[in-house]
Design goal:
Radius of gyration: 22 Å
Number of helices: 1
Structural class: mainly beta
Low-confidence stretches: 1-15
Largest sheet: 4 strands, antiparallel
Strand content: over 45%
CATH class of one domain: Mainly Beta
CATH topology of one domain: Neuraminidase
Number of strands: 24
CATH architecture of one domain: 6 Propeller
Strand order of the largest sheet: 1-24-23-22
Mean pLDDT: 92
Distance between the termini: 68 Å
């Protein structure tokens, strides 16, 4: 038997279908300039372009924060408890499988590499030396991880860059540095900022012993990839420097901050993220995530 339905019923059905497929409006992109006050102290930054998410290593509270447009800053990961007086985190990266990895400075007694997997599990990489004061971290295009650290012997820093395995190994590939802070793998080249020596170094990943100086700067900090393939680093003078990987020439890309630690660049939306650190060692507590347009 054929059932005839009223025309009004069909119109309501079509209207309902239209509502179910309606696309939500796009979230506005915050290009800044904007300063977001943080309940924490930002250090390493990592921009995940695929998921349009900025990850922030909180140097004060031993956790990873995240920023997304329309959501501002929120907790991404609460890491395993740190030993007393050693919550300080350095750089942060996200691996291809979604695992977040960061390093803990540790002040010579509690240095560590920590991870947070996509399923929510967190942990500490086993069997690594706890006297390594780790700051820098980078992932190469082939997925290999590298970290930077130094040890202090009789008040003298001895710094290294190592190949890092999350199963529990750290193999030195570059030694005889002073205070390697930032490291960044770009294509087949590894860049290193030696803060105490005031140098940006570079070496081929295929032969790290071929180390040479790219630029001489005052106390460069963590490294990131910026516009037109230039390198970015922060300074204690409150500036972000952009460095040519070809000539080593540096210029100020942005300034007027307190002290700049980590940086990250969102190429799609042409904006710069800056970890703006209050350097007052006694009363400093005003830390910001800065968002700056780059045109």
């Amino acid at each position: 038997m054929r059932i005839l339905r009223p025309l009004s019923w069909m119109l309501l059905l079509l209207a309902g279908c239209g509502e179910s497929t309606k696309t939500p409006p796009p979230v506005p992109i915050e290009r800044g300039p904007r300063a977001i006050a943080l309940d924490g102290d930002p250090n390493g930054l990592f921009w995940d372009d695929t998921h349009q998410t900025l990850y922030i290593a909180d140097d004060k509270n031993h956790r990873i924060l995240k920023y997304r447009d329309g959501e501002d800053v929120s907790l991404a990961v609460a890491l395993p408890d740190a030993p007393p007086n050693s919550p300080n985190l350095g750089e942060i990266v996200r691996l291809a499988d979604g695992t977040l990895v960061t390093v803990r400075f540790g002040f010579g007694t509690a240095g560590a590499v920590l991870f947070a997997r996509p399923d929510g599990t967190t942990g500490v990489v086993p069997e690594l030396a706890t006297n390594h004061r780790r700051i820098g971290l980078t992932v190469a295009k082939d997925g290999r991880l590298f970290d930077s650290y130094f040890v202090r012997n009789s008040n003298v820093n001895v710094g290294s860059v190592a190949l890092l395995d999350l199963n529990g190994s750290e193999k030195e590939i570059i030694g005889a540095l002073q205070k390697p802070v930032g490291i960044l793998a770009v294509e087949d080249t590894l860049y290193i900022s030696d803060q105490a020596a005031g140098r940006i170094l570079q070496a081929p990943l295929s032969n790290p012993s071929e180390l040479k100086t790219l630029a001489t700067l005052t106390e460069p900090d963590l490294l990131a990839l910026g516009p037109q393939g230039e390198l970015l680093t922060g300074t204690k003078q409150g500036t972000v420097l952009s460095i040519s990987p070809l000539t080593g020439e540096a210029h100020v890309l942005a300034g007027g901050f307190q002290q700049v630690r980590g940086t990250a660049y969102d190429a799609k939306n042409r904006r710069l993220f800056v970890a703006d650190h209050d350097g007052d060692s006694t009363n400093g507590s005003t830390h910001f995530l800065q968002i700056i347009p780059v045109d």
